[in-house]
Design goal:
alpha/beta, Rossmann fold, four-stranded antiparallel sheet, binds adenosine-5'-diphosphate, binds magnesium ion
Length: about 260
């Protein structure tokens, strides 16, 4: 059994007479330990897909199963196992880190959630905060400081520390390095990959940038207009793209532009 099974997932947003089919009959599986890239231009449905996989939203139709259990459309109180096992790192740490909370409280927040505590009650918040801050390369006294005292790259390290706090099995990174300067991006990406390796995490890596996905993920799915148009080993998507949209993404990467 795959860790994740996504079956015929559709999400339609409607406001008044306007309907947006953000996700259109998407199916995929994710194996334990897999690093899967989800790539596509802005608006292709990547965030909608991972929000449904994290059960932060309900599908219009279709189903998501995690570890054999249905998680789509399930009430929050019954999602403890998912909340403890699947953690997200989002693009903008400025909006995802509460400016009024110190870093220690931010990182400990998932451990204080009642439904996660039911799953991970054995984790001592204070000790765990020190552990994960160290794991992301921040000094332990960072816990007493506030997000605005840190640079963009450091804030993203804080977001990664918070995601690691409940010892998840799966990390979902949604454009997690996209807002960072190029030099800082490489550092944070290397940190992330080191942790994924060391902790044997399953990684869903969402990016509009196929070049970054290639660096990080052996496998990828390519999304366009709410559909998966191509899936396979990332290397193969580069060398022999089957779908014209994939070919266009590859051609848009400067180093590949000159290739026949
Ligand atoms: N809450 C929402 N209400 C209405 N439309 C939405 C909402 N969220 C996303 N969409 C639309 O769904 C489509 C896919 O969006 P999204 O999943 O955010 O794409 P991506 O992450 O690939 O940029 C876009 O057309 C977007 O405008
Ligand atoms: Mg998005």
């Amino acid at each position: 059994m795959s860790l994740y099974e996504v079956e015929n997932l559709t999400r339609v947003y409607s406001s008044g007479p306007r309907r947006v089919v953000a996700l259109d009959d998407v199916s995929l599986t994710v194996e334990r330990g897999q690093r899967l890239g989800i790539v596509g231009e802005s608006g292709s449905g990547k965030s909608t897909l991972i929000r449904l996989m994290a059960s932060l939203d309900r599908p219009t139709s279709g189903e998501v199963r995690f570890d054999g259990r249905v998680v789509s459309g399930v009430p929050e109180r019954r999602l403890g196992f998912l909340r403890a096992s699947v953690q997200l790192v989002l693009q903008d740490p400025r909006s995802s880190l509460n400016p009024r909370m110190n870093v220690g409280d931010i990182v400990a927040e998932p451990l204080r959630s009642p439904i996660i505590r039911r799953e991970r009650g054995d984790l001592d918040p204070r000790a765990r905060v020190a552990e994960v801050l160290d794991a992301v390369g921040l000094p332990v006294d960072a816990a007493r400081r506030y997000p605005h005292e840190f640079s963009g790259g450091q804030r993203q390290r804080i977001a990664i520390a918070r995601a690691l706090a409940p010892s998840p099995e799966v990390l979902i990174a949604d454009e997690a390095v996209s807002a960072l300067d190029v030099s800082v991006r490489a550092q944070v990406l290397n940190l992330l990959m080191g942790l994924v390796d060391e902790l044997s995490l399953t990684l869903l890596f969402v990016s509009h940038d196929l070049a970054v996905v290639r660096h990080v993920c052996p496998d990828a799915v390519v999304m366009q207009a709410g559909r998966i148009v191509e899936a396979g080993p990332t290397q193969r998507l580069f060398s022999e793209p089957e779908h014209p949209y994939t070919a266009r993404l590859v051609a848009a990467i400067p180093a590949f532009r000159a290739r026949p």
